[in-house]
Amino acid sequence: MIQSKKRARQDDTFESGIPNKNFDFEKKCSVTLSNVNVYACLVCGRYFQGRGQSTMAFKHALQEDHHVFMNMDSLKAYCLPDGYEIIDFSLDDIKRVIRPRISEELIKKLDDGRSIIECKALNGTIFYPGFIGLNNIGNNGYINTVVQALIRVSDFRNYFLSDRTYDQIKQSSFVIPPTSSSSTSSSQEQLPITSSNQFILSSVYGELVRKMFNTANFKPHVSPHSFVQLIDILSQKRFPVNDHEMGVQRLGMNIGRGDDGGCY
């Protein structure tokens, strides 16, 4: 009886239209603005911190009657306020959208240049991995152009698509520094490109590239929001989104480091 009750509650929650949710935005709590231990509400798509009784996710579950949450690091799903883990294969589609993995077979097809891979979004729109649009989230078209141009360089693209690049990645080991509440001028010096900062930037950029080549996307377009926000944070707003003249200088921030020690 208990299991059937839990199943019914879970199924009711899944009727909310999860495919309409956008998982491309910066993963931080919509209340506390923290990016530590963040869960996505799979009913409304908002991010909340934690799942204990005093957390924002727990309160949201009680106030809004939304009960299915997924941890953005582990990709484990939980029912709140009950607190039990949800094991259901129907969540795999969401996991593939949040953290796509590109097969070596697909990478070889991309290198071939003659194989056209046709995919279909949930609304029936046909799209081709690697040839999808990037959302304009505030006068950032020039950034989108740079990103689209870079993924046409096969070695550069494959570096960020390959699983081998991320074998040692532990995203939870790094915390993105919070945005300063005070305004900063464009002439302010950027944060030093330390190994940690460079690692974070490489990881977030790699996530964007893999989403652009993901054959399981819900939509035929991707938002670069997380990548754009991270550049603003790590550069202490030296490269504001709405300043087109800073577009080329953004490339000076190292996105990745190859096995030979050379910077991309």
TrEMBL record:
Recorded GO MF terms: cysteine-type deubiquitinase activity; zinc ion binding
SMART domains assigned: ZnF_UBP
Top-level taxon of the source organism: Eukaryota
Alphabetical GO biological process terms: protein deubiquitination
Matches recorded under Pfam families: UCH (PF00443), zf-UBP (PF02148)
Gene3D superfamilies cross-referenced by the UniProt entry: Cysteine proteinases, Zinc/RING finger domain, C3HC4 (zinc finger)
Protein name listed in UniProt: Putative U4/U6.U5 tri-snRNP-associated protein 2
Organism in which the protein naturally occurs: Streblomastix strix
